[in-house]
Amino acid sequence: MSKLMSLLLSPEKNPLARMHKESVSRRLKHYGLRFEDLYDQKEDLDIKEALARLPREIVDARNQRLKRAMDLSMKHEYLSDDLQARQTPFRSYLRDMLALL
Predict the structure, then answer these.
(1) Which of 58, 10, 53 is nearest to 37 (CA)?
(2) Whose CA is closest to 23, among 89, 80, 76, 73?
(3) What domain count does the chain have?
(4) Rounded to 5°, angle at Cα 90 from 74 and 53
(5) Which helix (H) or strand (E) segment is 48 a member of?
(6) What single-letter DSSP state applies at residue 80?
(7) Long-range contact list for 95-99, CB < 8 A, 24+ apart?
(8) What is the CATH number for 80?
(9) pTM for the complete prediction?
(10) 48 Cβ contact list (under 8 Å, min separation 6)
(11) Choosing a second label site near 51 at 20 to 30 A (CA), which of 11, 37, 41, 95?
(12) Is the distance from CB of 34 to CB of 93 less than 8 angstroms?
C-alpha cells in the first residue's frame, strides 16, 4: 500500500478515518456484532474456508451474534447500554485464519 493510501485509511493518522471507525463501532455495538461477522461466507470462499477451520465454539458465538442482531433489528431495538459497553466490535477472530489461506 502506498504511503498516501496508508495515511488516508489509517484511523490513527486521519481524523476522518477515525470518525468513520467510531461510527461503525457505535452501530455494531447497537446490535452486539463484530466487524468480521458482516463477512458473507456465501460470497467469499476464503471466508467459508476460514470459518470451517475455526473451533466450533467461535463459529457458534458468531452465529449467535448474527441471530441476536437480526432479532433486535426486526424488533427495532438495540442492546441495553450496559451490554453495548462490553462489546468489542473490532476484536478479530478471522484474521489469523485468513492469513493462513
Answers:
(1) 58
(2) 89
(3) 1
(4) 90
(5) helix 45-53
(6) -
(7) 95/36, 97/50, 97/53, 97/54, 98/46, 98/47, 98/50
(8) 1.10.1090.10
(9) 0.86
(10) 41, 42
(11) 11
(12) yes
Interval 25-43 mean pLDDT: 97
> What residues have CB less than 8 Å from 8, skipping those under 6 apart?
14, 17
* Structural domain boundaries, residue 57: 3-99
Spatial distance between the Cα atoms of 27 and 33, rounded to a whole number of angstroms: 9
Cα separations in angstroms, 31 against 23, 74, 76, 95, 99:
13, 11, 10, 21, 27
Q: pLDDT tens for residues 48-96?
A: 999 999 999 999 999 999 999 999 999 999 999 999 999 999 999 999 9
How far is the C-alpha of 48 from the C-alpha of 42, rounded, in Å?
7
